[in-house]
Amino acid sequence: MKYILNILMMNTMKAGAGVPGWPKKDLQAHIAFMHNLNKELRESGEFVSAEGLSFPDQAKLVRAGKDGTLITDGIFPESKEFLAGYWIIDAATPERAYAVAGRISAAPGPGGTPLNMPVEVRPILSGPPPEML
Amino acid sequence: MKYILLMSGTKGGVDTYRAWSPKDIETHMAVLMSLNKELTESGEFVATQGLAGPAEAKVVRGQKNGMPVTDGIFPESKEFLLGYWIVDVATPERAYAIAGRISAAPGPGGVPTNMPIEVRQFASHGPKS
């Protein structure tokens, strides 16, 4: 079964701040940890995809207006949760998905201390029911 | 450049959608399937997924010993990711236009849902291997 592991952050992250502002050594250790986890997931056949997203200051919210015109909005409250990035994995059990999420959560931050960031784990739907296609 | 179009909503919103008539759901899905086909033909389609509802979501944190701690109770007001599209487009405006099409997909009685769609570019760097 496929699961998505979502990394959520508050809208206080700006381009050039946060992770990119860490000392180089700490950033390298963090990236090496993630690369190593991805390599392990590829070897076990569980890796599907992983992406990091641009910062909230580059996000837009789009709505279709009544007459079909677009309404875009780019100002978000500081309290809004943003998706920072995600992994999609193909895991045999939910427990395995939680274990992988736990590994991601334990990725090292400044000084090598685990970040313990929350990771949201959700099953991916296989698709709309066939009678609706 | 790749963009992700994120559709979010609350548990209440999901419950409302589940109460739509089969005909309304069918019409809604047909419009989205048609959009996917169009994006596939234009070479802009990368991926789309719907996610399971908030009731099946867990938040996981790693402990010092490496064991995961899971938490599954969320406030009703919490916004959840319902699904996403990944598109590979020439300009941000094109990504906004596609998001507008998704936002205009019909709801009950054929009235556009006008759902807000968050548009974000993929980071060019990051923990990829």
Ordered list of secondary-structure elements with their pairings:
The complex is a heterodimer of chains A (133) and B (129).
Chain A: E1 2-10, H1 24-43, E2 47-52, E3 60-64, E4 70-73, E5 81-90, H2 94-105, E6 119-123
Antiparallel strand pairs in A: 1-5, 1-6, 2-5, 3-4
Chain B: E1 2-9, H1 11-18, H2 22-41, E2 45-50, E3 58-62, E4 68-71, E5 80-88, H3 92-103, E6 117-121
Antiparallel strand pairs in B: 1-5, 1-6, 2-5, 3-4
How would you describe the overall organization of this protein?
The complex is a heterodimer of chains A (133) and B (129). Chain A has 133 residues and is an alpha+beta fold. Chain A has one domain: Dimeric alpha+beta barrel (Alpha-Beta Plaits, 2-Layer Sandwich). In chain A, 24% of the residues lie in helices and 29% in strands. Chain A is built from two helices and six strands. Chain A has helices at 24-43, 94-105, and strands spanning 2-10, 47-52, 60-64, 70-73, 81-90, 119-123. In chain A, 29% of the residues are buried. The mean pLDDT of chain A is 85. Chain B has 129 residues and is of the alpha+beta class. Chain B has a single domain, classed as Alpha-Beta Plaits, CATH 3.30.70. Helix content of chain B is 31%, strand content 29%. Chain B has helices at residues 11-18, 22-41, 92-103; strands spanning 2-9, 45-50, 58-62, 68-71, 80-88, 117-121. In chain B, the strands form two sheets. Chain B has a four-stranded antiparallel beta sheet with strand order 2-5-1-6. In chain B, strand 3 (58-62) and strand 4 form a beta hairpin. Chain B starts with a strand and ends in an 8-residue tail after the last strand. The mean pLDDT of chain B is 88. The chains are: A alpha+beta (133), B alpha+beta (129). At the A-B interface, strand 1, helix 1, strand 2, strand 3 and strand 4 of A face strand 1, helix 2, strand 2, strand 3 and strand 4 of B.
